[in-house]
Design brief:
Layout: H1 5-30, E1 34-38, E2 56-58, E3 61-63, E4 67-76, E5 79-88, E6 94-98, E7 102-105, E8 109-110, H2 111-117, E9 120-125, E10 137-139, E11 142-145, E12 156-160, E13 165-168, H3 175-180, E14 183-187, E15 192-195, E16 198-199, E17 216-223, E18 226-232, H4 244-253, E19 258-261, E20 270-272, E21 275-276, E22 291-292, E23 294-299
Antiparallel strand pairs: 1-7, 2-3, 3-4, 4-5, 5-18, 6-23, 8-22, 9-20, 9-23, 10-11, 12-13, 12-14, 15-16, 15-19, 17-18, 17-19, 20-21
Length: 300
């Protein structure tokens, strides 16, 4: 029996190391923060004015010399949906920001916190790049990650310096080629909801194992310097949530030519004029913001 003690001990040690390694891997992926690069709070290449002039605001609108936003709340499919119609004089006012102005692993903050720290007028959660270990990350013309993501078939939303939108596939173009071609921001979640003015998903399309009815966030372009951001509440008694197809229907109704699904569920958050407008929730029991990696916003 004594001869069995060493092999048993070695096996026990190996098992502990294996378990510890797996646990650390999970912690590193989902919990432990690791800052890699500090970034500028705003797009430093912007030629836009540094502060707004002739500002006029209401609970549902914002207007100045360069930005006009009108917020509408509608009900469809037993769901409360917030629609922000956005006109800007220049694409410089369509921006992105990373939580804590830092690129890294599990660097997060509430959408409202990142929006406030960047003086955003309107903001929505982004693609939550930090929840994935792969996938292109391009912000303000800088490449932070250039590895192809697992669900690359969903496509990415490329936002160009002239403000135009295009759906791209990471398997068909490199991150550097995108930047060389004028891409300043890239969002990698998806899928595309509208392409060439037509709905690009069907009634069975879904993200992973997500439920059909969910809180949703999406961004689209209607015309030059004319954008739309849509956020749907969900998972509550008051608001059921939308399927991807239903979200696409809303965007098509507002004449979006290209529209893209952002991170949804508990991440879906719409910030406007200094406050959260929707009711973000993960499970429907508590209305509270989830901390996320990044935002898309309108501001200076």
């Amino acid at each position: 029996m004594k001869l069995l003690k060493k092999p048993f001990a070695y096996a026990s040690i190996f098992g502990l190391l294996l378990t510890g390694g797996f646990s650390y891997s999970l912690l590193k992926t989902f919990v432990l923060s690791q800052a890699m690069t500090s970034v500028s709070a705003t797009n430093t290449t912007s030629s836009a004015a540094t502060s707004p002039t002739n500002v006029s605001t209401t609970d549902t609108s914002y207007t100045d010399d360069n930005i006009q936003i009108n917020l509408e709340t509608i009900t469809t499919n037993d769901t409360t949906v917030y629609v922000a119609d956005i006109h800007v004089s220049s694409s410089d006012y369509l921006k992105t920001a990373l939580a804590q102005n830092t690129y890294g692993t599990n660097i997060t903050a509430k959408t409202s916190e990142t929006a406030s720290s960047n003086n955003a007028i309107l903001a929505v959660n982004g693609d939550y790049y930090g929840a994935n270990a792969s996938g292109y990350v391009i912000r303000n013309g800088t490449i932070y990650r250039d590895t192809i993501r697992d669900n690359a078939d969903f496509g990415d939303l490329a936002i160009y310096a002239d403000g135009s939108f295009k759906i791209i596939k990471e398997t068909e173009v490199t991150a550097q080629e995108l930047v060389d071609d004028g891409v300043v921001n890239l969002l990698a979640f998806g899928p595309a909801l509208i392409e060439n003015g037509q709905i690009a998903v069907d009634t069975s399309t879904e993200v992973g194992r997500a439920m059909a009815s969910n809180p949703r966030s999406a961004i689209g372009i209607i015309d030059e310097n004319h954008y739309i951001i849509v956020v749907a509440d969900g998972r509550t008694e008051e608001s059921q949530g939308l399927s991807l197809y239903q979200m696409a229907e809303v965007l098509k109704e507002y004449d979006a030519q290209t529209a893209y699904n952002l991170d949804g569920g508990g991440s879906s958050t719409l910030y406007f004029n200094g406050q959260v407008i929707n009711n973000p929730t993960t499970n429907g029991n508590t209305i509270s913001e989830r901390e996320v990696s990044d935002i898309v916003y309108i501001g200076y």
